[in-house]
Amino acid sequence: MNLFSDIRAVVIASLDAMVAAGTLPEGLDFANVAVEPPRDAAHGDMATNAAMVLAKPAKKNPREIAEALAAKLMADARVALAEVAGPGFLNLRLETGVWSGVVQGALETGTDFGRSDMGAGRKVNVEYVSANPTGPLHVGHTRGAVFGDALASLLDYAGYDVTREYYINDGGAQVDVLARSVYLRYLEAHGQDVAFEDGTYPGDYLVAVGEALKAKVGDAYVGEGEDVWLDDVREFSTDAMMELIRADLASLGVEMDVFYSEKSLYGTGQIEAAIADLKGKDLIYRGTLEPPKGKVPEDWEPREQMLFRSTAHGDDVDRPIQKSDGAWTYFAPDIAYHYDKVQRGFDELIDVFGADHGGYVKRMKAAVSALSDGRVPLDIKLTQLVRLFKNGEPFKMSKRAGTFVTLRDVVDLVGADVTRFVMLTRKQDAPLDFDFAKVLEQSKDNPVFYVQYAHARVCSVLRKAQAEGWGTSDAVLAKVDLSGNTHEAELKLATKLAEWPRLVEIAARTNEPHRIAFYLYELAGELHALWNRGNDVPELRFLQDSESASLPKIALARATAIVISAGLGILGVAPAEEMR
């Protein structure tokens, strides 16, 4: 049930009738006609821009269109008032019975209230985290993990067929460095003194890996050269790190559908196949790039390379894919990996990268556009840094990883639910301040507490009603007469509930799960406001003297809890039944 879509359908039908009557010319495009909440709630329940967007193509005064449209809309039983404002905006007020239908719809469909078929089963691949398998996930990865996971859940809720994917960067030089670092811990496990040179990984997390390697091979690699142990230790170390990363993700409630190895692209012909595809489209050539902008490095020299004509697909410059010595550049396996995604039949691709990957955006979009002949869109979301605070002061935690704060450090301190919700309280491309004291504070300023408290309050009401022996199942509440819920505070809460299905579709369309967190905070605010009004106006309290007087109030509260639970489910947060 999407009330905004329903009323938009009424608007479109009215516009069609105006065309048939000759009030509007034929051939108008109604795609940009919207029905949305007014900027000022005092202006009504909904507003439409129909007259404003159609005035120019219809060659008519927008107020003239708005007045004719208002007359048509007033014929619908749900519309109490259609009022023209300003140059041609049209504000609508709905009959109070409409809001009863919203509450009943939530009670009848449960947490599926707001679920959409907008995605129509389109296959979407969401790749996120994809950290180098060289250590535990750090706090920066945490934000990307939460964002990507919430986005995947949101798209699933909006009707898409979603695959969650982790790209294991195990094909580069960094895994050789990992292997050498583990080898040092292996020697240490044999009682040797070792020194970690610059460029190696000194974190304590590798101590157990070195000991595990000793348990597996004994002293077979002691004193041997890299030619003997490097390949084996690289594989052993990567497997150990991925086991650690999987455990870190599990602690945050993140489960991937696919772990895709970069190493699997090498020596299998997959890179060559992707390049051949581009070459067949005349997008691969040998050429010499212009020098880099700004100060030119002293060791830079013009040289002929194999280049991808990425400028043909929106990039700023063409990109090298093979070095002069014949080795692939880092971009080549990335092309092959996305080629594989396209070949797997995904309709849309989403990559979630850290802020330091801004330079990848245009080249990767160009590659996917070229590989899919423009059929498959790629949306790249960059997640900005997380700054840690405690009581407003920069906070430096103990760093078990050696050089950075880990995901597990954060989860162990505040819990997975708090971590996930807080990571979504800002849009992903804005820096996030994570204050360990603030996120555990029980106040309105802490959005996690504020939303959870709203849900817990409703659960408390239900427990007390059940203790009275009253029927409070959703099936019972859905049949309750709600016509008495007419106070302004009750209607505001019901109106906010009506926004939920529309909000889901907007958030899914823009790939912005933070909108869910923002909405839940606003919805919780309306519930708390109604609760507090009950302190001064007894007839607004959810529990009245009788079952018949209480159930309409309880139905509204329960519908609110259903939507909060659905929204928290998208964010990967468990709703609280009581606050301790």
Describe the structure.
This protein has 580 residues and is α/β, with parallel strands linked by helices. Among the domains are: 3-94, Arginyl tRNA synthetase N-terminal domain (Gyrase A, domain 2); 173-252, no CATH class; 443-571, Isoleucyl-tRNA Synthetase, Domain 1 (Orthogonal Bundle), CATH 1.10.730. Helix content is 47%, strand content 13%. The chain is built from 18 helices and 15 strands. It has helices at 3-20, 50-58, 62-73, 96-109, 139-157, 173-189, 207-217, 226-251, 270-280, 331-343, 361-371, 407-414, 416-423, 447-467, 474-477, 488-510, 514-536, 547-571, and strands spanning 35-36, 46-48, 79-85, 89-94, 123-127, 161-168, 258-261, 284-288, 304-308, 319-322, 348-354, 378-383, 386-390, 393-394, 432-435. The strands form four sheets. A five-stranded parallel beta sheet has the order 7-6-5-11-12, sandwiched between helices. A four-stranded antiparallel beta sheet has the order 1-2-4-3. Helix 10 crosses helix 11 (361-371) and helix 12 crosses helix 13. The longest helix has 26 residues, at 226-251. It is globular. It starts with a helix and ends in a 9-residue tail after the last helix. Its main location: cytoplasm. Belongs to the class-I aminoacyl-tRNA synthetase family. One of its GO terms (cellular component) is cytoplasm. InterPro entries: aa-tRNA-synth_I_CS, Arg-tRNA-ligase, Arg-tRNA-synth_N, Arg-tRNA-synth_N_sf, ArgRS_core, DALR_anticod-bd, Rossmann-like_a/b/a_fold, tRNAsynth_Ia_anticodon-bd. A motif ('HIGH' region) lies at residues 131-141.
